């Protein structure tokens, strides 16, 4: 019993901080709504276009502003109150979800509406993301930062389980009531819009106060200062490159899940939602493992080994034609991805000093988040010539190659 109590205390250490608890529950509620919208929006795009390219394009346009403006967002995160920036971001995202719900309600939605709203959502995230990542270390002591990063990943991935399941449940319930799929999807968009009210309340309730650094330099000078800091820390450069490769090659499997449900397993939205849920459940387990480990020796080497395993699991999923086996493989890929993501993010957070954290995390986010749309667009385009499972299999093989490269050459990753 004592051992179990110590294990739980270690695993959930960041929850002993009041502000972190408030932020976590607010973010989790909003993330559940976001994942409901993600799966509903992917299914809507596929229903309107029947195109892998448009699935990739939608992801690309949402992430494009992150590639264009995240570095500026990082400078603002160091210069201005991070909570105010976050609040503005939440208001905009609440508005885009509400606009899509209105378009669906009046039956006038077209694919270009979705693409435009995705771009606007990405704009909000480009400025809110660095502020959010920079805020987390202010909520806990440094010794508990890896635990906080892992627990923050858990809320995101708990949402990846619950959100898709709620989407699948809404399809079933609305069918019982005699309504069609578009009306169920519209309910998901509306609920997501309302969920932002919870995270807004949580942000307003935080006690932590961010005191921006006094600066007489221009925004351009501070941006160059952040880039120079990263450039002169080789291990940061290597971690950022590793993160970009992971998302470029590894996230398209989630983008293509509607295609696997429809064309490989010949099923509908319910199967798609439960495939997403298995991936999310695995990610929760992976994040719990990292939370329990906390800060440990050879974190970089561990991330490389698990990334190689992740690549093998993706390739195996691409080859599977048995639903239960695919569920298991998605669970394992989710766990592996979260171990890599949480470990690498923790290493970047621990390396960056507070006065530079907004800029360093914006560069990291540019690589991490930027890899998603570029990878989804490239994979979606390639899938117009060869099958989507073959594209995913090739991506998995390349992930293994990237991990082996850093194992051999290191660039500072193996030693941290």
Percentage of residues in strands: under 5%
Largest sheet: none
Determine the mean pLDDT: 82
- The total beta strand count reads 0
H and E order = HHHHHHHHHHHHHHHH
CATH architecture: Up-down Bundle
- CATH topology (level 3) name: Growth Hormone, Chain: A
How would you describe the overall organization of this protein?
The protein has a single domain, classed as Growth Hormone, Chain: A (Up-down Bundle). Helices cover 83% and strands 0% of the residues. The protein has 16 helices and no strands. Helix 3 crosses helix 8 and helix 6 packs antiparallel against helix 14.
Keywords:
single chain; 416 residues; mainly alpha; Growth Hormone, Chain: A; 16 helices; globular
Secondary structure layout:
Elements: H1 2-11, H2 18-49, H3 52-79, H4 82-105, H5 111-135, H6 145-176, H7 181-205, H8 219-231, H9 234-250, H10 252-255, H11 257-264, H12 269-293, H13 299-319, H14 323-351, H15 354-382, H16 388-409
How would you concisely characterize the structure shown here?
It is built from 16 helices and no strands.
